[in-house]
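Team,

Forwarding the record for the chain on the shared tracking sheet. I've put the sequence and predicted structure together so nobody has to dig through attachments.
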Amino acid sequence: MAGAGIALLSSWYTAEYLHSGRLVTIALEDAQPKELAVWAVYPARRQVLSKVRVFVEGLGGER
């Protein structure tokens, strides 16, 4: 915003700004974002809460 440059942001974060016109979408046909590692850190317990287990598995990780 305000001429700050180009950014790669989540649609849930930018929807309001795109709708209001404060941000605009540009097409970078051959651009690909870098792959980034995502870590899920939680306390080690015998019983992991099912919602934590499902979330971590959804990230593609191991339990």
